[in-house]
Amino acid sequence: MIIEPNPTVPTMAVGNPHVSTTLPGSGTSWGAIFAGAVAAAALSLILFALGTGVGLAAVSPWHGQGLEAGTIGGAAIAWLMFTQLAASGVGGYLAGRLRTRWHSLNVHESYFRDTAHGFVAWGIATLAVVVIVSMAVGGAVRTGVETGAQVVGGAAQGAVAAAGMAAGDGDGARGDPVAYATDALFRPEGEPLAGRDEGRARAEAARIFAVALANGQLGDDDRRYLGRQVAAMTGLAPEQAAQRVSQRFDDATKAIETAKQRAAEAADAARRATMKASLWSFAALLLGAFVASLAATWGGRRRDDLD
Fold it and tell me: What distance in Å separates the CA atoms of residue 134 and residue 302, rounded to the nearest whole number?
């Protein structure tokens, strides 16, 4: 009896080692890929939690205690590299070791498929970790960003409050041009009115200073008016009162400029830290992709040798 060749099985050309006799079907073992991805993602989260705990234990809010920022940053980078190396290596090896047997497949094609399995497993694990971590810390990150923006945006107002410019009447009109114009409308000429309430005088002075600081200069009329108020309420000579007004305005201006400078320095430091974190994260992910692909070829080779 003559057995006809199965048309679904390609016939291998004689003497050609690059022609495969593998049964038709997909060359991707998705079960092995997902198994490696799950293992890599789980190990990444475990190592991430361990690194976070050790890092928080090494940080102290008290002066002179805990590690320095540079040391902590270097340790975080090293731990990130190790996490990618270990998790990607385990996930890639499992993706290669657990894939199905490719019968009569040449070595080059087998290496390519194993590399692809490791790379895809690494990609799935990375996306899963990103989603899980984003869901876990997304609220904290958003809160931190919003708080930082409020701190930077309100640096000038904070400097004014720190310099002692808060009004005492609680009307919330500090820095309001309308309140300033209303004060100027009813401003007495000559000497201050006898028995004027000190709290309201302080509130008016705070509004005058707030508008002047926003404009960058204190007008001559405002300077003379504040000098008369200070002289009447403190007993200073008019010249000394005017000098005190100018000195306190200069101090407030310097405080605001210092606050702005510190805010700019903090923003620049955050920019540099973000840049470094992004570059090191890119390097760590690149290392993880390479290790996962290489480990998959080791696992696949071991799987074929034991079959």
Answer: 36
